[in-house]
Each structure stands twice: as structure tokens, then as C-alpha cells.
Amino acid sequence: MDAAGTRPHTVVSGGPLELAVMWGGFPLLGAGAGWLLAAATGWLARLPWVPFGALIEWLDRLPEPQATAGTIAVGVLAGLIVAGVGTAERLIVTVDAAQVRLRRSDQNRTIVRVDTSVVFVGDGHLVLLDADGAELARESTDLPAGRLAAAFREHGWGWADDDPHRAAYRLWVPDLPGLPDGADALLRARERAIGKDRHDDARELRRELGALGVVLRDEDERQYWRLTGRAVTGGAEQPTSPERTPEGR
Description:
single chain, alpha+beta, four-stranded antiparallel β-sheet, 10 strands, disordered C terminus
């Protein structure tokens, strides 16, 4: 710690316990599922409506103990795959007085404090906004909001317990006035992507809308939107809402 008692940086992650649960728990669950499948193949094979009936019948004809050992091994392998995916997707947040690093296995982003107006957790995402209300980062996370709040506040960042712009969001309906040119078409495309579970396309369309000054919030597969201070709407009146000052700002 420095002279003021503040740590040089703070790391917020699931920690070793989360890794132990994933790499120990998921393979054990997979092994248990494999054992149950092997024990129930005779019963399942007699059900005319069971899915993958041909596979069940094939497993039922295998000799023991090879059949049970094989299904357990497949279950363990499936558990290890799930653990690997979970490890890759876990978010690790490292905060200091100047910047925050958001790290996953496939990406490593750094956001500087001078560009950031407020930080909050909303709808299962860690969100950083700039002074115009635009999103600098939006990362899905199940990290406890209390731990994240403590880390950012410790290093002097502006933290809000909820989205300070929440009252400004409006439900999107096609051809609604007030949006920037091209935003309505992007929202239509994103609605289709959400309906077809094309999550990568939905994320990319969110980024395209952000470049136009449109910030989104999803609720029950419906899109709500607001405009940033930099949005250009051809003279249309922008929706506004009272601003709440984050703690510590």
C-alpha cells in the first residue's frame, strides 16, 4: 500500500474457488450423468419416444463394465469442456488510480480513468460511460457488484449503484422519430438477430448503433434506447432525464 493506505491496484475475479468449482465440479457432474445414463439405458431403450433412440440401444448392447466406464469417461470429458469454456469466459477486472484492465482469455481491454465519467453494474454487465453518456465498455459478468464497487471507489473512480441514465431510455418501435439516420434499420436488423439467437451479430449491431450515438438496454427481448450527448439527429429533440451524481464525484 502507499502512504495513504491505498493498494497500487485491486483485482476482482472469481478467484481460486471459482476455478476449483469449475474444474472439479463440472467433471464430477459429468461423471455422475454418465453413470446414470449407463444405469438407465435398458429402461430408456424401451421408450419409443426417447431422443437418440439408436444411440441408447447401441449403448444398451455394449458389455459391462465397458459401457459404464465409457459413458462416465464421456461425461468427464464434457465436464472438462464446460470448465474450459467457463474459464475462458470469466472476467478479471484490475483497477488502479489511472486505468482499469478488463481481461478474458480472448481479449484484454484497458480503459483510462480520465475518459470515464461513471462506472456501474446493470442487467448483468459492468458498464463504463464517458462524459457524453456513451459506453466505453460493456462486459457481461457475474462478479459481485459490491466487490466491484469497493474496488473502483478505493481508487477514486466515480461509481453509481445503478445506470444514471436509466430514466432516459425509450422503448424502440419501428419508424419511431428522434433516432439518428440509419439507426432504425440497424435496430430492425438487431431485433431479427436477437430473435434468431445470433448473439455475435447483435453485439456487432450494438457497436454500430453506439457509433451513431445510440445506447441500448435489452429487456425481455425488447430494445430500449437513449441518445448520447454526441448523437446527431438532424435537429430532432433528444430525450433527456435528470442526472444523478455518482458517489464520490
